[in-house]
Amino acid sequence: MPRPSRTHDAVDQLLDAIIDGTLTAGEQLPPEGQLATEFGVSRLTLREAVRLLQAQGVIVQVPGSRHRIAPVSEWTGMDAVVRHARSAGQRRRSSLELLEVRVMIETGAAQLAAERRTAEHLDALESSLQRMVAHHEADEVDAFVAADLEFHETILHAAENRILIAAMLPLTSMLAETRGETSAVAEIREHAIAQHGKLLEAIRAGVPVAARDAMWTHMMQTRDDLIALVLD
Questions:
Q1: Are 7 and 47 in contact (CB under 8 A)?
Q2: I need a surface site. Which of 23, 26, 46, 153 has the fewest CB within 10 A?
């Protein structure tokens, strides 16, 4: 059995070649031996990488012929889709698509968190918000982003839904990247602090609808800031 690290490296190389157009969607995958040589891996490792990408809908098995590379619209694996979304030329679209997904997921998470949060969750949210304020004043963008992400992660955990948490995991790296872009702008950090404060109070009050609406307002402010101050 190939070592997982080698297999995952081969998956990354193969996926990158598809995303950058070196391997073209709709066409057959080059011969196994050729790809193994190009990527510097064994045929067994290459075969396992292809199998993993088949599971994500990136590569389609064709009986009696070489595998076919599927168009992005047919991909089903979150990891592959997110990797493509983060690629060059996809920045604006992927940023807005991610925000749309966040609106759908995080408004519901905030609603559940208002019903299920504990004193420990509230303390964690308060701590994250205080650190956001301190890091904003010190112009420490990376630390601000970390505190911002922790605030939202606490809301997810307060919602007490394991499937919800698992659904957000593949988006974590993409969230960190986009937060870094937006949080570099001081005005956006100020808006975020204000919106997080309102969100915390709604969750503290234990009013689900108010928490849901506060998260929606926060997401809309983020969208407006992203379009006006980062993407355009």
A1: no
A2: 26
* Mean of pLDDT values over 183-195: 95
**The domain over range 4-76 is classified in CATH as 1.10.10.10:** yes
Residue 136 CB partners (closer than 8 Å, separation 6+): 144, 186, 189, 190, 193
- Per-residue pLDDT, averaged over 94-119, amounts to 93
What fold characterizes domain 89-231? Four Helix Bundle (Hemerythrin (Met), subunit A) (1.20.120)
The pLDDT-based confidence of 181 (bands split at 50, 70, 90) is: confident
pTM above 0.90, yes or no: no
